Amino acid sequence: MDRKIRVLMAKCGRDGHTRGATIVANALKNAGMEVIVLGIHKTSNEVAEAAMQEDVDVIGLSQLDGGHMAVFRRTAHLLKEKGAKDILLVGGGIIPEDEIAELKNEGVDEIFGPGTPLQEIVKYIQTHVRPLPDYSFKR
Fold first, then answer.
1. Quick one: which of 33, 124, 126, 136 has the most CB atoms within 10 Å?
2. Radius of gyration of the chain from Cα atoms?
3. pLDDT category, 133, cuts 50, 70, 90?
4. Contact present, 95 and 70 (Cβ < 8 Å)
5. Which range of residues forms the domain containing residue 103?
């Protein structure tokens, strides 16, 4: 039996708007994923460290304060630096179209803007993450 997809959700910088991230986290939980909510006002370093410690498959960053370029870029760089290139990095929030390609070139796998259907986010994660088998002992 495969283990659940593990997702770390976080908000970096001074952005404290959590409604969208909470809705997405609930949709992922309802789809059978394990969601760890790191919370608000985190640094990219804290996110990357938590992702490694929690052995997650996906990091979901939400950014609404305009700091997405620095935060997403730095998080992608840290994951690469730590050898965690297998962790899917997705982002959401208010991100101008012309900056999405640049973020993807920097290592962000996908960006989901306002109004993205929740099922589209779930399906993207399910098709781009292959959870490792669960080798825990079962009676």
1. 33
2. 14
3. low
4. no
5. 70-128
Q: Tell me, what CATH number does 118's domain have?
A: 3.40.50.280
Those residues whose C-beta lies under 8 Å from the C-beta of residue 66, and which sit 6 or more positions away, are 94
pTM reported for the whole predicted model: 0.89
Task: Determine what percent of the chain is predicted with pLDDT higher than 90.
Answer: 68
User: Tokens for 135?
Assistant: 């080798």
Identify the residue with better confidence: 121 or 135.
121
What gap in Å lies between CA 110 and CA 124, rounded to an integer? Answer: 9
The token duo for 85 is: 């290139």
> Which amino acid appears at position 89 of this protein?
L
CA distances from 79 to 21, 31, 121 (A): 21, 26, 21
